[in-house]
Amino acid sequence: MSDSPTATLEAPQSGVGAELLSRIEARTACVGTIGLGYVGLPLSVEFATAGLSVIGFDLAADKVSSLNRGESYVSDVASSRLKPLVDSGKVKATTDFALLAKCDAIVICVPTPLGKTKDPDLSMVVDATDAIAARLRPGQLVVLESTTYPGTTEELILPRLEARGLRVGEEFFLAFSPERVDPGNPRFNTRNTPKIIGGMTPRCAAVARSLYRRAVDTVIPVSSPQAAEMVKLLENTFRSVNIALVNEVALMCDRLGVDVWEVIDAAASKPFGFMPFYPGPGLGGHCIPIDPFYLSWKLKTLNYRARFIELAGEVNSEMPEYVCDRVADALNERERSVKGSRVLVLGIAYKRDVEDVRESPALDILRLLESRGARVSYNDPFVPSLSLDGHTLQSQELMPAVRDADVVVIVTDHSGYRYEQIVEEAQLVLDTRNATRGIASPKVLKL
Ligand SMILES: NC(=O)c1ccc[n+]([C@@H]2O[C@H](COP(=O)([O-])OP(=O)(O)OC[C@H]3O[C@@H](n4cnc5c(N)ncnc54)[C@H](O)[C@@H]3O)[C@@H](O)[C@H]2O)c1
User: Fold this and answer.
1) Where are the alpha helices (DSSP H) in 138-270?
2) Is the minimum distance from the CB of 129 to ligand 1 under 6 angstroms?
3) What pLDDT sits at residue 135?
4) Is-contact 202 170, C-beta < 8 A?
5) Is the CB of 350 under 6 A from ligand 1?
6) Could you tell me if the CB of 233 is within 6 A of ligand 1?
7) Mean local confidence (pLDDT), 240-259
8) pLDDT of 350 above 60
9) Is the distance from the beta carbon of residue 126 to the nearest atom of ligand 1 less than 6 Å?
10) CA separation (Å) from 235 to 239, 248, 286, 294?
11) How far is CA 319 from the centre of its chain?
């Protein structure tokens, strides 16, 4: 794919910028990655595979030790891939931020959650930036990858780095490049997912593009960090809004007595102008339930109400409650109350075949059912135990738990489940993911 026509790039021809560029191109540059989680670890491995030396920084000493033993804790990175890179010295991890001074390029991949009032919590980005600023030297490139609101790189990061007295685009280089990783996706990974970059100056863009070109097949520059920040939020808002639309369609279909899954499958046969999204028990993960609120927060400061984002957030966040109502109705049909009934939740992770439970709707469903007096339990092959509001739940052995439950709720459709057998042995199944498609049984209720 060609470079965006709006982006201007200017490779530094002399000075520290030219030296940095030649080190990157010769693959003798050292890359620092701050935050070794779902984003930072795969990226570190990709840079190291491309031949660059990588130092990973994290506050979590257990992650650092695990990584230095060559043991991956992120399912998308196989230990068999990590270990040789560690053994050959291409990747090392540390909690010692003094080593940032050694790095030619530093990529920030720390979490950007929401605070209790749903306002952006950029404290970890600020901490990481301050750690860099304290050691910033001429000839370094800094890239922010954490998802954030448009303006963060320019308004929050740049002043902190410039406070060192170095000039951006001349003595140091700054860019934003959103991470697009889709954990568990067998087809798209860090390497073959096109990477957007927005440089603070045309030179920053040229240096950042050169770095990512070592590790990523396609790099697409846009005109500014703000545009790159907005790209990521458009992508995630697009998903949130479309999922909300289809969740509402599911509620409509329920009232109409129409099978929403049949409707979507049939609509998806249209070869243009339609893209299927699927309803579910609610949004989960670190991105889709959170990122759009970064955008709406920013727009609030500009006296603009992001109506689609708010409405989508409302519809999606009501889905766990809807699932619980469906459980209650199904039990009621069988002259049972929720109180005292045994409810087994299948799948706790926020999506299929991953171990990540952050923001998972299953957690809300467990809480809501428990507050209505149900005796809840769960099974998830990826999540052996779970801490929920101060108590710990253990994943139950699958088939005995299925047989024992008054109702089984399929919340996450892991591919390892044998749904036919589950339906056969369960008393009642509420399937929120259409995992039981093709299984005709009066015991199965669908979203
Ligand atoms: N997980 C995804 O699928 C995904 C996809 C695209 C974008 N993102 C974005 O990428 C960013 C990182 O997400 P993640 O899923 O990798 O998070 P994560 O929680 O898996 O990893 C973040 C790591 O940063 C470390 N950390 C926190 N503060 C630190 C500090 N000051 N210095 C050094 N390390 C620190 C944590 O210990 C943790 O290991 C977020 O902004 C997220 O929205 C995530």
Assistant:
1) 152, 158-162, 202-215, 225-256, 260-267
2) no
3) 97
4) no
5) no
6) no
7) 97
8) yes
9) no
10) 7, 20, 14, 13
11) 20
Half-sphere exposure of 117 (CA within 13 A, CB side): 2
Catalytic-role residue among 103, 109, 287, 324: 287
Report pLDDT digits (tens) over 284-326.
988 899 999 999 999 999 999 999 999 999 999 999 999 999 9
Q: Is 287 a catalytic residue?
A: yes
Q: Tally Cβ neighbours within 10 Å of residue 349.
A: 24
CA of 286 to the centre of ligand 1 (A): 9
Report the pLDDT value the prediction gives residue 116, as an integer from 0 to 100. Answer: 82
What is the residue whose two structure tokens read 């929720």? 338
Q: How far is the CA of 371 from the centre of ligand 1 (A)?
A: 32
At 119-128, the pLDDT tens digits run 999 999 999 9
pLDDT value of position 183: 83
Ligand 1 center to 322 CA (angstroms): 31
Separation CA 64–CA 68 (nearest Å): 6
Q: What is the pLDDT of residues 319-336, one digit of tens each?
A: 999 999 999 999 999 999
List CB contacts of 380: < 8 A, sequence separation 6 or more. 346, 347, 348, 349, 386, 395, 412, 414
Ligand 1 mean position, distance from CA 8 (Å): 30
Strand partners, 445: 430
Neighbours of 37 (CB within 10 A): 17
Pairing of strands 391-394, 385-388: antiparallel
Ligand 1 atom nearest to 127, measured from its CA: 31
For residue 111 and ligand 1, the question of a CB distance below 6 A is answered with yes
What confidence category does residue 186 fall into, taking pLDDT thresholds of 50, 70 and 90?
confident
